[in-house]
Amino acid sequence: MEFKSRNQGQLLSKIATNDGHGENSPYFDGWKAYDSDPYHPTENPHGVIQMGLAENQLCFDLIQEWIKNNPKASICTAEGAADFKDIAIYQDYHGLPQFRNAVARFMEKVRGNRVRFDPDRIVMSGGATGAQETLAFCLVDRGEALLVPTPYYPGNDRDLTWRTGVKLVPVVCESSDAFQITRAALEAAYKQAQDSNIRVKGLLLNNPSNPLGTVIDRQTLQESLDFTADKNIHLICDEIYSATVSGQPGFTSIAEVVQENPHCNLDLVHIVYSLSKDLGFPGFRVGVVYSYNDAVVSCARKMSSFGLVSTQTQRLIAGMLSDEEFVDGFLAESRRRLGKRRADMCEGLGQVGIWNLEGNAGLFCWMDLRRLLKAATYEAELELWRLIVNEVKLNVSPGAAFHCSEPGWFRVCFANMDDETMEVAMERIRKFVARKQRRRMELEVSLSFRRRRDELVMMSPHSPMASPLVRART
Amino acid sequence: MLGSQEYILSKIASNDGHGENSAFFDGWKAYDADPYHPTKNPNGVIQMGLAENQLSFDLVEEWVRNNPMASICTPEGASQFKDIAIFQDYHGLPEFRNAVARFMEKVRGDRVRFDPDRIVMSGGATGAQETLTFCLADPGEALLVPTPYYPANDRDLTWRTGVELVPVICDSSNGFKMTRDGLEAAYKAALDSNTTVKGLLLNNPSNPLGTVLDREALSMALSFTNDKNIHLICDEIYSATVFDEPGFVSIAEILAESPDANPDLVHIVYSLSKDLGFPGFRVGILYSYNDAVVCCARKMSSFGLVSTQTQRMLASMLADEEFVGKFLAESAARLGARRAAMCQGLAQMGVGSLKGSAGLYCWMDLRRLLKAATFEAEMELWRVIVNDVRINVSPGASFHCAEPGWFRVCFANMDEETMRVALSRISKLVVQSKSGEARKQCRRRSKLEISLSFRRLEEIMMSPHSPMTSPLVRTMT
C-alpha cells in the first residue's frame, strides 16, 4: 500500500494557521527571558524577576489554614472520601447547586451585599478565557464586532476573536483623560465601525481595569449602559478584579447600576467573572458567565460542556466560599495587603521620579516611563522594554501589548512575589533610573537638536492608530 | 428601541446546533421527573441511557484513602496547595502528562509508546473533539463519521465550528462494520455536493455498538485517509472497557506498523470519563502525531484546561502502576460479567444484541417488536419503554442509525439488583408484545407485507432523524 505525504499548509484549518492566538508577538520575548533565567534569592539572585504576570499570591497563608481546618471540602481526605464517587460521576452542566450558591453569595459579598445574584444564572466556563469566548459565540456573528476600550488585556484578542471570527474595535482612551472612557470616544469608535460596514454587537468593559489598575466610576458605567441601550447592543462587564480594590474609590459593579435603572433592557447585560485573580486560583480554571438574559444563560450553559469546572474543584470552592466568616476575613485582609503592596511600590518608584496612573485596584501599576523614552514612538518603547528585560532583568509589560494609544506606559505587577523580591526589584529600578538620569544629562544638549515629533507615534505598526478603523485622534 | 431576541443573539445561539431540542431528551425528562429508587420509588424510571462506569469505585476510594499525598487538601499534601493553585501553564503539570501517557500505554498492553509532550488537555473529550475540528477543518468543510454514532458528535464537531458531518452508512447486514465501499460512497457524495472532506472520525471501541474495530478495518481507514490526504481522528475513549476477545487495537499500533503512513494526519481523542468513571473531573486529552496540531491545540486548551487540583490527584493515581494494573484487570472483568448477565437475560426473552467485547452498553435488537420497520414505529416503541416499562434507553435514531429497531441500553451505571429489576421489566414488555400482538401481527403482517416492502425504503429516507435525508447520501448500498 502506498501512502502519500503532502504540504502541511494544506492540511490544517485557517484558524490553525493564522496568528489569532496572539503568541507570535515580540512581547513573548520577556517570558522567554524569564523562563531561561528566572530569579531566585539564593540560587539565581541576578535572574529575571517576573513582574509581567498578574497573579495574587499574597494571601495563601489564609487559604492554607482554612484547608487544614476544613477537610470535608475535599473528596480525598478521610472525612470527605465517602463522597468521591458521587462527585466524580456528577457531570450535569448546571454544576453542583452548592457551588453555584456559594459563588453567587461570594460575588454579593465582594459587592458589599449591595446587590443579589441569582445562582441559577451562574454558568461555568473554562476560566474567564472560556467565559469571554462563550459570550462572543452567543452574542456576535463572524465578521461582526465588539468595542473594547484601550488599553486592554492582550488575551482579549485571542479569547474574543480567534475561533469566533469576531472583530475588536478599539475605543481609544488617553492619558489626558487619565485613560477614562468618554462618550465621545465610544461614539467615535461606533461610527468608525459603521463607516467600515462593520456591525457592532456589543461593548466589553473591564472593571476594575487591567492594565490601568483603576475602577470605572458610576457615571462612566451609567454612560456605558445608556450608550449600549441607545445602540441596542450588548454590555459585557469583565469584573475579574472585583475583590482587588482597596480604599477609595470603591468598586461599583454593573449589577448595581442595573439595579438603579429599572427600565434598562436587562437582556443586553452580562458579567464575566473568575476566581483566578480575587482568590489567586488560576490553576483551578473557575470561570463564570452571569447573564441577565435567559436565552444567553441557556445557550452559554450548553456551551459550558466545552469547559466545565472539575467537580472536585467545584466541591472545594463550594465549601470555601460558603464559609461566610472566612470570606469576610479573607476579603478584608487581601484588600489590605494588596493596598499596602501597591503603596510600597508606588512610593519606591516615586522616590526616583517614576509615577503611576493613580489607582487602587488590580494586581499591578500602570507605570509612566514616557520621559525615559528616546523618542515618543513605539520603537523607542520596545527598545526601552528590551533594556528593562535584558539589563535591569525585570519582565514588565509594555503598553503596546495592551494596544495603548501612547507609547511609554508599562504595566508592572506586584502581587506575585514576596516583600524581599519586591525590594530587590525596586532597587534595580532605582539604579536603572539613576543611570539613565546621568546619561540623559550628558546627552541633553545634543538631543535637543534631534528630538523627534509625535507624528511618529501614529506610524508604528503596533499602534492602534494604525488600525484602519481609527482615522483621527480626538 | 428593543429588537427581538433573535436579532440580538448570534446565529449560533439561535440555531439548534446544540442538539438538545430532539425528542430523545424526553427520556431524560421522564427519568428526572421520576427517578427509580429501590425503596423510595420502586416504580420510577430506571436510567439506562447514560454510558457511565460505576462498577469499580470501591478500588478508587481505597486508593484515595491510602494516598493522601495526591491531594492538596490533606495534611500530607496541603503544603503544595499554593504551587498547584497558581500553576496555569497550558502544558499542564509534567507529572500529569507523564502519568496519562503511561496509563494509555498500559491500556494498550505496552504495545506502543506515547510521548508526554504530545499530550494536550481539553475540556473533556467534548472539548477535544471541538478543538481538533477547529484545528483541522474550516467552516463549510466536512468530516466523515460512520453511523450509528455518538449523538453529541453533532454538537461537538459542528455547532460552533461550522463544520459539517457526512455519515458513512453502516448496517446490520454485516454487523455494522465499516467498509471501503461505504467510505468511498460517502466521500464521493460529499464531493458531488462540492463539500470538501477534511477527515474521518472513528470511535474505537464504538459507542453505541460496543464493538472494537479490527486490525484490518483500522489499516483500511489509515490507507483510505492517506489516499485522500485527509485526517484520521480516533476517539479511543472506551479503550479500557474492553473485557473480552477480540481485544482492543489502537490506531497507535497500526501507525507504528505503517512506516509509510503520514503521521501528520493521525490524531487520538481520549478522556478519563469512561475508562475510569470520572466524567465530573473533565479530563480530556488530545494526542496528535502532527507537531503543528499539538502546538495549536495546546494554545486552544486555554479554553478548557484541566483543574490543576485534578491534574495533581490523577498524576499520582495513574503513576501508581500497581494500582493501575489491578484496576484495569478488575474493571474489565466486572464489565464483562455485567454485560454477560445483561445479554443472557435479554437472550432468555428472545431479545438479541450485537455481539461485542467492549463499552458500557449493549446494542439491543428490538426490530421484531416494531409495529413496522419505520422510525415512527421505533419512536412509538421507545415511548412505551420509557413511559410504560419505565426504563430510559436510547433509540437508534438518536445515533443516526440507518435501520429502525436498534436500542442502546447501558448497564454499568447501576448495581446488580437494579439491573435485575430492569431485565424483569423488559421481559414483561417482550411477553406482552408477543401474546397481545402476536395474533394481531399475524393478520396485519400478511396484509402489510406487500405494502411495507414498497414503503420501507421511502420511510427510512424520509424520517427527519434519518441520515438518509442528508443531501449527501443519495443511494442505499
TrEMBL record, chain A:
A Pfam short name: Aminotran_1_2
Protein's UniProt keywords contain Flavoprotein: no
EC number assigned by the record: 4.4.1.14
Entry-linked PROSITE patterns: AA_TRANSFER_CLASS_1
Record keywords, A-Z: Ethylene biosynthesis, Lyase, Pyridoxal phosphate, S-adenosyl-L-methionine
Record field: catalytic activity: S-adenosyl-L-methionine = 1-aminocyclopropane-1-carboxylate + S-methyl-5'-thioadenosine + H(+)
Associated pathway: Alkene biosynthesis; ethylene biosynthesis via S-adenosyl-L-methionine; ethylene from S-adenosyl-L-methionine: step 1/2
GO biological process terms held by the UniProt record: ethylene biosynthetic process
Keyword S-adenosyl-L-methionine appears in the UniProt entry: yes
One Gene Ontology molecular-function label: pyridoxal phosphate binding
UniProt-listed SUPFAM superfamilies: PLP-dependent transferases
Cofactor field: pyridoxal 5'-phosphate
CDD domains linked to this entry: AAT_like
Domain Aminotransferase class I/classII large: 49-429
Homology family: Belongs to the class-I pyridoxal-phosphate-dependent aminotransferase family.
Protein name from the UniProt record: 1-aminocyclopropane-1-carboxylate synthase
Lineage: Eukaryota, Viridiplantae, Streptophyta, Embryophyta, Tracheophyta
UniProtKB/TrEMBL annotation, chain B:
Tree of life domain: Eukaryota
Molecular-function GO terms, alphabetical: 1-aminocyclopropane-1-carboxylate synthase activity; pyridoxal phosphate binding; transaminase activity
Principal EC category: lyase
SUPFAM superfamilies found in the cross-reference section: PLP-dependent transferases (SSF53383)
Pfam family, one: Aminotran_1_2
Presence of keyword Glycoprotein: no
Domain Aminotransferase class I/classII large residues, every copy: 46-426
Cited PROSITE patterns: AA_TRANSFER_CLASS_1
Obligatory cofactor(s): pyridoxal 5'-phosphate
Recorded metabolic or biological pathway in which this protein acts: Alkene biosynthesis; ethylene biosynthesis via S-adenosyl-L-methionine; ethylene from S-adenosyl-L-methionine: step 1/2
Record GO biological process: ethylene biosynthetic process
Enzyme Commission designation: 4.4.1.14
Keyword vocabulary terms for this entry: Ethylene biosynthesis, Lyase, Pyridoxal phosphate, S-adenosyl-L-methionine
CDD domains, A to Z: AAT_like (cd00609)
Enzymatic reactions: S-adenosyl-L-methionine = 1-aminocyclopropane-1-carboxylate + S-methyl-5'-thioadenosine + H(+)
Similarity comment: Belongs to the class-I pyridoxal-phosphate-dependent aminotransferase family.
Protein name per its UniProtKB record: 1-aminocyclopropane-1-carboxylate synthase
